[in-house]
Amino acid sequence: MAKADVTQAEGDLHLERLTKQFGDFVAVHDLSLVVPQGSFFALLGPSGCGKTTTLRMVAGLEDPTAGTIRIGDTEITHQKPYRRPVNTVFQNYALFPHMTIYDNVAFGLKRRGVKDVNKQVNDALTLIQLSEVAQRKPAQLSGGQQQRVALARAIVNRPAVLLLDEPLGALDLKLRRQMQLELKRIQTEVGLTFIHVTHDQEEAMTMADSVAVMNNGIIEQLGPPTELYESPHTVFVANFLGQSNLFPATVQETDGEEIILEDPDGKFRMPKERVASGVNTSGGSNVLVGVRPEKITIGPRSEAAAAPIDGNYVDGVVESASFLGVSTQYQVRTEGGEQIDVFAQNLDVHGLLPHGSHVRLTWQPHHGFVLAPDQDIRASADVSAGVSG
Amino acid sequence: MSPANTPVPVASKPPTTVRFRNWIGNNLLRIYAVLAFIYLLLPVMYTFVFSFNDSGKSNLTWVGFTWNNWANPCAAPDVCQSVINSISVGLVVTLAATLLGTLIAFALVRHRFRGRTTTNLLIFLPMATPEVVLGSSLLTLFLNILVPLGFWTVVIAHIMFCISFVVVTVKARLSSLDANIEQAAMDLYASEWQAFRRITLPLVAPGIAAAGLLAFSLSFDDFIITNFNSGQFTTFPKFIYVADKRGIPAQAYVIASAMFFIALAIVLIGQFAGRRRKEG
């Protein structure tokens, strides 16, 4: 490997105030981001959110309207794609159809005039476990194999940053799961910075160390997958990663480390630390309360009423129950008129609470979260439901 | 509907009729294909057979068999010169039209520029315009700007209509290419020129070759536009047309047959090579 590349490869990727406009349309708006070296980073969002444009700017395939891109101390904002230490795994692989697998993988090394091409190519083919097909043409390989070749063709160059543009989108579900683990294994093995663009929240959460959720050209929230899931800061994030029950409530008063909220179903307690930053919690202000469906316990109201109250609760009637094997999915209409989804683990063998049952839903105060009220409760709910399958 | 129209009576019909009907049913397509080929190849066969005719000046009636025509294809005055003329025009036209047409195709597919839509439309114009109109208007142009008719006016005329076919052929190939492939090459440290030479060109080459062959055969074959713009210059189709008035020499039949077999050989070699590449 050339010496210059080694020094270039050291460093985090910095995006500073990056903007890309296509005519009047702002695809990426004032985006700043640091991706630490060696991390597996995911850009997650629905189609058209600007994630692919961001990726293409890092690759050098789009020219930013404003802002800078740096790797370590080297600025690469307007460098030609073939001059930056960045390689891409394209969505449809973009393998060279007239070349053998070996020549595809060797392409980048040969262009840079690297010595011992043969060894590096063979090592890369071993890494993706495809040494035996080196002399075949891309069309003779299955989709999963082509995907791995596209990966090998990029990582053989040991780029400072590897970009993956929806790399698993064209694979079927089973293969996709397998490749997710494979990608993670390879990333750990080679220790390169991976930036992974996807609309599949499960894919992002499985592989990435940190995830940036993008929407309308900006980053809605950035953090480790667990943090995004447990403490979403916006309705969009709450709905895009998994499912959330969201309902409006009014702050009544502050009680030490807790706030007391009220909605038509009654009063709730929530710890202050579960309130998203910037939300006004002074008395009388409106907020949105969110609870994940799997955090709610459901039980017959008669039994629950006898037990001491533990945490927050609402009463309602079962509107539908679907048995899914591992769990049962209930839709409950509360007395206050809200519809709440509940995923109940099938710990018992007693069967379902039938349609029309009077039930009590309870959850621990620190399992909920509080968001700002001025948002569309349905934001991204349709999108994520559409792609999660 | 009569009660006899049930499945049972069909089986009780005389077996020979049924068998004949089945045979027709199974072979209808084959029979049709054979008849179509006979219809298509009959004139070629006629030309081939009459190339062995021991005729005098006119080759319209069968006189007797001879090898002489094939032994001396250039015996008749001007036949070979006209073939040489046609081939020279064809080669120059193929080179120029393929080069220009390929460049236009790249511009149209890969770039967005003012007048792109208009260019796309204009490209189709020479294909849609009747040849008589094209030929006569070109002649008017040449006469008005005082260009002497001959080899170069024929070349210019042929390039004009061949370009359209080249553009359409290369464009089709180029559009089917994944634009990501070039970007992938540049992402893998290939400069614009390297990406073009190592990736795009090899992938478009079959389209360019096809366009070149098409241009050559269009040029070689053209009569109407050539006739308007050639003056004293004679191509092979024009020779045949002119000779027809005083009797086509048997040597012309020889050359026509030879051309047919050469074309056939090229196609067969192409098919064979294609199949071998797929297997290998």
Write a brief structural summary.
The complex is a heterodimer of chains A (389) and B (280). With 389 residues, chain A is of the alpha+beta class.
Secondary structure topology:
The complex is a heterodimer of chains A (389) and B (280).
Chain A: H1 3-9, E1 13-22, E2 25-35, E3 40-44, H2 51-59, E4 66-71, E5 74-75, E6 86-89, H3 101-111, H4 117-127, H5 143-155, E7 161-165, H6 173-190, E8 193-198, H7 201-207, E9 210-215, E10 218-223, H8 225-230, H9 235-240, E11 245-255, E12 258-263, E13 266-271, E14 286-291, E15 297-300, H10 301-306, E16 312-323, E17 327-334, E18 339-345, E19 358-363, E20 368-371, H11 381-387
Parallel strand pairs in A: 3-8, 3-9, 6-7, 7-8
Antiparallel strand pairs in A: 1-2, 1-4, 4-5, 9-10, 11-12, 11-14, 12-13, 14-20, 15-19, 16-17, 16-19, 17-18
Chain B: H1 7-12, H2 15-50, H3 68-71, H4 79-110, H5 116-128, H6 131-144, H7 151-175, H8 179-187, H9 192-221, H10 224-229, H11 236-243, H12 250-279
Task: Write up this protein.
The complex is a heterodimer of chains A (389) and B (280). In chain A, 40% of the residues are buried. Chain A folds into two domains: 3-230, 3-Layer(aba) Sandwich (Rossmann fold); 243-372, Beta Barrel (OB fold (Dihydrolipoamide Acetyltransferase, E2P)). In chain A, a hairpin with a 4-residue loop joins strand 17 and strand 18 (339-345). In chain A, helix 3 crosses helix 4 (117-127). Chain A is 26% helix and 34% strand. In chain A, the strands form four sheets. Chain A has a six-stranded mixed β-sheet, with helices on both faces. In chain A, strands 13-12-11-14-20 form a five-stranded antiparallel β-sheet, with no helix packed on it. Chain A has a five-stranded antiparallel β-sheet with strand order 15-19-16-17-18. Chain A is built from eleven helices and 20 strands. With 280 residues, chain B is mainly alpha-helical. Chain B folds into two domains: 7-70, no CATH class; 77-248, MetI-like fold, CATH 1.10.3720. Chain B has helices spanning 7-12, 15-50, 68-71, 79-110, 116-128, 131-144, 151-175, 179-187, 192-221, 224-229, 236-243, 250-279. Chain B is globular and about 70 Å long. The model of chain B is unreliable at 1-9 (pLDDT under 50). The interface between A and B is medium-sized, with 24 and 17 residues.
